[in-house]
Design a protein that fits this description.
The structure holds two protein chains of two kinds. The termini of chain A are far apart. In chain A, helix 9 runs antiparallel to helix 10. Chain A has a two-stranded antiparallel ribbon. Helices cover 76% and strands 4% of the residues of chain A. Chain A has helices at residues 2-12, 19-41, 73-92, 101-120, 124-145, 150-183, 190-194, 200-217, 226-233, 236-261, 263-290, 294-313, 318-349, 365-378, 385-400, 402-426, 442-460, 463-485, 487-506, and strands at residues 51-60, 65-72. By secondary structure, chain A is mainly alpha-helical. Chain A has one domain (2-506). Chain B is mainly α. Chain B has helices at 7-21, 27-54, 85-108, 115-134, 138-156, 163-194, 199-209, 215-231, 240-243, 249-258, 263-270, 272-276, 279-302, 306-326, 330-357, 375-388, 396-410, 416-441, 455-470, 485-490, 506-530, 533-539, 542-552, 557-575, 580-602, 607-627; strands at residues 61-68, 78-84. In chain B, helix 2 runs parallel beside helix 4 and helix 8 packs antiparallel against helix 11 (263-270). In chain B, 54% of the residues are buried. The chains are: A mainly alpha, B mainly alpha. The interface between A and B is large, with 55 and 52 residues. Chain A: One of its GO terms (cellular component) is endomembrane system. Chain A: It is a multi-pass membrane protein. Chain A: GO terms for molecular function: NADH dehydrogenase (ubiquinone) activity; NADH dehydrogenase activity; ubiquinone binding.
Chain lengths: 507, 628
Amino acid sequence: MAGGLLAWLSGKWEPYLPRTIALISILIVFGLGLTIWISHASLSFYDNDGWIIDFKRIWIPDFGISFHLAMDGLSLIMVILTLFLGVLSILCSWDEIQERQGFYYFNLLWILAGIVGVFLATDLFLFYFFWEVMLIPMYLLIGIWGSENRIYASYKFFIFTQASGLLMLLAILGLYFINGRNTGHYSFDYFDLLNAEIAPTDAKWLMLGFLIAFVVKLPVFPFHTWLPDAHSEAPTAGSVVLAGLMLKTGAYGILRFVIPLFPQATAEIAWLAMLIGVIGIIYGAVLAFAQTDLKRLVAYTSVSHMGFIMLGAFSFNELALQGVLLQIITHGLSTGALFILAGSLKERLHTRDINKMGGLWADAPGIGTTGLIFAMASCGLPGLGNFIAEFMILMGAFKANIPLAVIATIGLVLSAIYSLRLMQKVFLGPKTDEHSIKDFSLREIIIMASLTIAIIWTGVYPQPIINTVNSSISKLKEYYSSAVMIEEPIVKKEIKYLPKSIDNDGK
Amino acid sequence: MQHLLWLIPTLPLAGFLILALGRYLSRTTVALVGVGSVSLSALITIIIGVNFISNPPPSGAYSQFLWTWFNASGFAPKISLYLDSLSLVFVFVITFVSALIHLYSSEFMIEDKSYARFFAYMNLFVFSMLILVLAEDLLLMYLGWEGVGLCSFLLIGFWYEKQENGLAAQKAFIITRIGDTAMAIGLFILFYQFQTLHIPALLQGASNKWQIGAPIACTVALLLLAGGIGKSAQLPLQTWLPDAMAGPSPVSALIHAATMVTAGVYLIARMHVIFERSPFTQHLVAVIGAVTLLLAGCSALAQFDIKRVLAYSTISQIGYMFLALGVGAWSAAIFHFMIHAFFKALLFLAAGAVIETQHHEHNMFKMGGLKDKMPLIFWTFLAGAMSLAALPLVSAGFYSKDQILWYAWSAEKGTAWLWLAALIGALITAAYTTRMIILTFFGESKTPLGHLPGMRITIPLVILAVLSITAGFIELPHNFGQVTIFSDLVQKTLPETRMQAGVESEFAFQLIAAIIGLSGIYLTWWTYAKNPGIIDKLKSQALPSTLHRLWFSGWFFDTIYNALFVKPFKTITSINKNDFIDQIYTALVQFTNTLNRILSLSQSGSLRWYIMGIIMGSIIILTLNILL
């Protein structure tokens, strides 16, 4: 297994090679990932505390940094999703990218490697390293292969995520030193830090450091504004990776680090997090309705859907968490599909403006049908994966906070409104352009068919995914319950210490 | 035989998949697959139905477990089908009427370039509707529920080149979605009350746990009702249905008359235990039904588009069903549902044939004189119209509607007001039906005829016409014949109607209803056929013309909703298109840039300025030192 993991990473670090090699290498890794999944599907995930692979090499021992990767059900599913979308993103840039192919695929693979690394790293230093690895190639990808306004968008993307990333670095270092001072053992290892005892006030600040990095990445209202620009300017594969995967690193971070490391501190701000989640759901949906740029529209729907993740993750119950996991996956599939669709429309029409589209169904029923399927997926039609995810999140959230859950449910109406508008403007209505366009090519049919099958599968029989992540979810639930149990006294203490802590930070 | 149950929804699904994937099938194959799949499931339904009635399962219901949808921390909805007498009636009507409508469409749509797409959508619709009524779990029902919404959207907007059709389709989907969302919240509450969404378990739990009039029961019932009125086009969510006539006529017949719009009726009947626990909500159901049937009836009187008349009449007839549900006359509501499905499907199909031969003319005032030119259509349409107007003794509609009128008065939850509303509704119904017949079929011919419909159109019409006349005989009032085949069947699932103590003789009420119906017919005949000028004279006066405008526009609901919701939403979104949060960040960037420009001014390279700066700085520091 350790060798498999090594191959995994080295397989991605093949620079300067054109698309075929990129495709082959990622297919090999994808095959590996699937093998791991299938071989473990039959086994119980509860063995060994849920960790199925553990790989550790000493890296910089003086600072307690090690090259430590580990995989449990949660990261396994995320890795599979990454590789699946990775294959598709290479396929969809097959013809789109004509210049500097080698460097393009180098960047794309580096992003994917970074994301896989983020999902596997259990050393906080290593985690931060991978976090940066995925950031810079993405900046280049948008900046070099993007459309007209790409420089602005790439700067904006970089500054938002980098600034918040630095906050996380501060928090990581803070955690490292606090834990080191308490135990005398300085280590960046996740498992060492997991049991660190931190004073509640410190925990709160550290938690905020992590949380801000993750919610900017997610992104959650009011940090969402980099997303529409980055999406609309990025090349298709960039958008797919960005929406399908990079946003999910934020969600993953919340589940993997924020909650387990600082359960009490998280519990305190849970209602606030849920509130911004709900604002995001509504606000994103309303803005999506107003957009005329197809990619911006889909970007805002992402903001809305990420609001559901925020709502679910902080609802503090198991059902909502299962929903969050499914939402991560189904949103990756459905939004990825919509971006690929937008990309292929742009290739044909040379515009992203939906006012210039219309009546495309007549020429391209294939594109229309897939458009319909994924527009419906994004408005939560039962039978497609997103429905189960959102329903579970709302159901869980309902237990935690009824008014917020009810407001979030209104998001379902708004999502219907923007999805139908999208369909109407692009595929239905009278034809605006007398040029006829070509329907999907075989390559695009393969991409779309695999996405369609995946979204229907998650909608009709999501049980394998639920089983895979079950052990991770129940571990998270323990953190929740521990937090809820001792929440009360801590809140009282908090108020007493608050002024003092501000003083400390001032110095 | 009952293990074949899963085939009933699966066949239309298979038909849908074949039609959706096989893009290059010939028209004959398409028709064969499309019509064949639904006909086969109708056949299986009849076999299972006969088996079910002759040999009923001991518990009164047969349930077939297929697989567990998912199982996440205690929430484990199942994909399983549930057949009891209530779902049997619905499944029978859905498959049987659908099969006839599919047969009709195979000729009606033959010229259309998207023949396969049409049948694919239709099959998908039948599948979703069957899932809706057969689901044993509320979540699965929700799947069917949203599925029919989607198909309705697709079929209303079937001719997508026209912008209006697309808008009508969106309106239908969004308005019903509002109801669905309320229903989803209802499901959340139910889940947290009972830890399951399994319908029999829910009903069991509700009858054990909840008191009559408990606030929780009331909340849940209200939320479910919101879902029901969305789909069933009752006040105040009725505005989508008249516009839904943009779809092809068979679609109007199938979805917007016979089946989908009765989903709300099914939901309330299915969850009747919860509604009984909340007398307030149940009364509200009756009131909504009564008000809707009056308002929609009046609107039907003022329309000139034949399909819009029928659309408003659908809303009004479903109002009757709601009224019956509200007074606890469960089996009467379901009986009226069945009869209504027959005659309304017939009316829409016949109207479709009329419109087709009149070269797509919808305006009744431009038709006329078709009685002798297309006799078969005329007689079948007349049969349906008789049933709709509840012509005494000879039509099925009389028996079903009379039952509702009677229970509105005599049932335990009935009141004189409800009865009066239903009675006035009967008068209006008779009036607009007669008006429609006279304008379309009598008088002079105004538009030349196209080619007449063929066999595949006429056969379904004749079958439905026969049913519209005779189907009433399976349930006769006790003072003549007292046949109770239907209520016996349905009451295996639904409770019997409880009556008030000491009610008067039913006969007097039947007589009143019959007289009212007949006088409605006579009055209209008198105004439209005998004295044609009288309407124009009325229209020239102030009050009647205002009334006409009010009715024609459907009581201005659209205008009000536009002003209250649509316009503000559009304005707000268009104002905030560029996301004011982003403006804040942009402002931050601009601020930094400006600051940069100002500060870089100070780096002028001129020595005098630097010295000046140093001196000024020293002075300020010194002053501060002295002062502090």
